[in-house]
Amino acid sequence: AGAAAASLAAHVLKVQYRMALTPRGLDRGELWRLFTTNLVFTSPGEAIFGLYLIYHFRVFERQMGSKKYGSFMAICGTLSTAMLAGMIPLARAVGYRLGREPFASGPHALVFAHFVPYFLDVPCTYHFTIFGVRFSNKAFVYLAGLQLLLSHGSKTAVPSLCGLLASTLFHSGVLGLRRLTPSDVVCKVLAGTVGRLL
Predict the structure, then answer these.
(1) What is the maximum span of the chain, computed from C-alpha positions, in angstroms?
(2) What's the alpha-carbon Rg for the chain, to the nearest Å?
(3) For the whole model, what pTM was predicted?
């Protein structure tokens, strides 16, 4: 609901492009873009597919519990945003010009972070055949993800792949990220503030 309301408000006010993480914005010290880049989808088409996937992945909060799910979202969001922000000076160091707006705004990374547990933990419940090709019931979710991934080319693909990588790091256990959980005090403060907005 929060992403839908934020995207709608940004499109009505015509400020959706001011939310994205850009090299020029970081050069100017606009650090708020590190947060806002994950809030607002760039276009209504992205919003439709992204919100469908967010709605579809709601099952993970029930499976993990609110505390563990919130930890998963915070860690994946932080890691993927850090990866995107790190690409800007890295691209400059190797002489690659990113362009004015290299990354589309929107919770692409957070949406794609869900595909790792979806692939690993959600079983296929049935299969069907179209023109002799066998598909599972998960095919429609993967197709919606593919549409979101390719909606603006590399502008959406890069944040999406950062989300996949962040989630893979979370679930692999390599860095011990699964053991990180916030304290009860932090959970109560967040539930009373940010939780009311979502």
Answers:
(1) 55
(2) 17
(3) 0.83
Contact between 146 and 115 under an 8 Å Cβ cutoff? The reply is: no
56 close to 122: Cβ distance less than 8 angstroms:
no
For tokens 């989630």, the residue is 167
26: closest CA among 73, 90, 76? 90
Q: Are 114 and 60 in contact (CB under 8 A)?
A: yes
Q: How many CB atoms lie within 10 A of CB 15?
A: 12
| H or E element, residue 35 | helix 33-36
The DSSP bridge partners found for residue 128 are 135
Beta-bridged to residue 40, according to DSSP, are: none
At residue 134, the 3 state secondary structure works out as strand
- For residue range 116-170, what is the model confidence (pLDDT) as tens digits? 999 998 888 888 888 988 988 899 999 999 999 998 888 889 999 999 999 999 9
DSSP state, residue 129:
E
Question: CB of 24 within 8 A of CB of 88?
Answer: no
Residues whose CB falls within 8 Å of the CB of residue 29, separated by 6 or more in sequence, listed in order: none
Question: Angle of helix 154-172 relative to helix 139-150, nearest 10 degrees?
Answer: 130
Residue 7 in tokens? 């995207």
Please check whether residue 36 is in contact with residue 15, taking contact to mean a CB–CB distance below 8 angstroms: no
